Amino acid sequence: MSQRPEDILKVSSKSEDLLDMIERGRAFTLELMGENERLRYRMVQLEAERVSAEEIHRREVAKLQLEADLARQRLEFLDSRFHEIEEENKDFAQRYVEVEEQNESLANLYVASYNLHSTLDPQEVIGCIKEILLNLIGAEEFALYVMDEETGDLSLASYEGDPLSALHADRIAPGEGLEGMVAASGEAFFALDTGDSGEVCACFPLKLKEQVVGVIAIYKLLAHKPLLTELDHRLLELLAGHAATALVSSKLYAQTDRKLKTWEGVMSLLRES
Amino acid sequence: MGRKSLLVVDDSATFRQLLCMSLTRLEGISSADITQACDGADALGKMRATEFDLVLTDVMMPNVNGLELVERVRSELQSRVPIVIISTKGEEAFVEQGMKNGANCYLLKPISLPRLREVVSGLLAM
Fold first, then answer.
1. CA–CA separation, A258 vs A269, rounded Å?
2. Which of A246, A114, A54, A88 is nearest to B20 (CA)?
3. Which residues pair with A155 in a beta bridge?
4. Is the ipTM of this complex over 0.95?
5. Interface contact flag, A135 B113, Cβ < 8 Å
6. Is residue B18 less than 8 Å (CB to CB) from chain A?
């Protein structure tokens, strides 16, 4: 079967179109393969990056974990140190208050002893002892006994409180009652409560070295003074020493002064005769 | 707080000295001028001559007692100076009378330094 030239041309044209299409298909396929290669490469890159990021992240987490542990330990240490310092601070504050109280007591003692020794008049010394007991210690009812050297009895020198009270007798024999026992033993007595029902709440000896020269008995404290503190006890004991010295000194001075005046009188009489 | 002028009134020389010593130990008024009076009459005389920033007085005193002193400072001297009563007399009647007469504060002996500091600083800052 013979073909006509037109048909041959037509077929040839179609063939060329087909070839062209195949060529474009090939170019497109190559392009797709290139793109595929690029994408695979990119995928590998991304995969590598992902693995690297995960590793970095993992390491970072581990590092942060370590830092957090260290911070926790540091916090625990600081917390315990803070508590320790807080306790120390409380301790210092407490000691400061105690020192302040002791300073106050020393100042009281200084003023009281200064005043006790500032006079040589026995009555003024007794007045000063009363002032101290009332204003510094807060005693409302008390008695001051001095030792009678001849009989050894305690003789009432002064008192504060109810004059009709039977608490303070005029004379007390050695060893009689609490006052006599304190005078005999030379040891101070401090009751645990205020002695509201007429009991002695404190009784302490006035001692010159080991010699008892008198006794102070506190029967009642001021209503607003609940009890004698440990500091009051120490203050009273120290004051007792000063009071004893002041009492004996003033008594000796008064005796000497009396004798001097007597002798001056005698001498004056002798001169006149 | 500038240089303050204080008047301490008490018939007990021991307590006066003790109070003066305590006052000089208080922060802010350690350099204060402290005048002493041995009773209410003495205090009134001193208050007529000098103006004080604070008066601290006892109650039981000869001549003019502390309660009368407060009353006369307010009525006779027409003074509004802060007055602190410091006494062993803690009975309600004394406290009421003192405050009624015009005292600013009523403290009981024996007085503690922290309480004294609190009251004195407060009144001087007024």
1. 16
2. A114
3. A146, A171
4. no
5. no
6. yes
